[in-house]
Amino acid sequence: MAFVKACALSELEDDTPKRVELDGTPVSVVRTEGEVFAINDICSHANVSLSEGEVEDCMIECWLHGSSFDLRTGKPSGLPATRPVPVYPVKIEGDDVLVSVTQET
């Protein structure tokens, strides 16, 4: 599993998604509830960036249709999305947020 730097931890504001592209994969990096998560940035219901949505209770909401996805599992909380989005392992080393997009979990 190859980890690459996604951003600096100091760049992340609580509950504010940050969109990055890692090895051609759009990823939303989110710091919430004292943890950092990485989730695929594209909603499984429509081709919409999740990083433009809001974060609450460890969920990220798609701003277009209102589906929310669990940052830990990628599973949607309800319609219209029915498929999960990939989530990625995260490591923190100093101020670096490292993400592996080579193996989806």
Architecture overview:
By secondary structure, the chain is mainly β. It has a single domain (4-99), classed as Rieske Iron-sulfur Protein (3-layer Sandwich). Helices cover 0% and strands 40% of the residues. The chain has no helices and ten strands. The chain has a four-stranded antiparallel β-sheet with strand order 2-3-4-8, with no helix packed on it. It starts with a strand and ends in a 6-residue tail after the last strand. The model has no long low-confidence stretch (mean pLDDT 94).
What topology does this entry show?
Layout: E1 4-8, E2 18-22, E3 25-32, E4 35-40, E5 55-56, E6 59-61, E7 68-70, E8 87-88, E9 90-93, E10 96-99
Antiparallel strand pairs: 1-10, 2-3, 3-4, 4-8, 5-6, 6-7, 9-10
Short description:
The chain has 105 residues and is mainly β. The chain has no helices and 10 strands.
List keywords for this structure.
single chain, 105 residues, mainly beta, Rieske Iron-sulfur Protein, four-stranded antiparallel sheet, three-stranded antiparallel sheet, globular
Question: How many domains?
Answer: 1
Shape: globular
Proportion of beta-strand residues = 35-45%
Average pLDDT metric: 94
> Which structural class do the helices and strands define?
mainly beta
Tally of strands: 10
Unreliable sequence segments: none
Helicity range: under 10%
- CATH architecture label: 3-layer Sandwich
Question: What is the distance, rounded to the nearest whole angstrom, between the alpha carbons of the first and last residues?
Answer: 11 Å
Instruction: Tell me about the largest β-sheet.
Output: 4 strands, antiparallel
Mind telling me the CATH superfamily name?
Answer: Rieske [2Fe-2S] iron-sulphur domain
Q: Which value, in Å, is the CA radius of gyration?
A: 12 Å
Spatial sequence of strands, sheet with the most strands:
2-3-4-8
Write the element-wise H/E pattern from the N-terminal end onward: EEEEEEEEEE
CATH topology: Rieske Iron-sulfur Protein
CATH C-level name: Mainly Beta
- State the helix count: 0
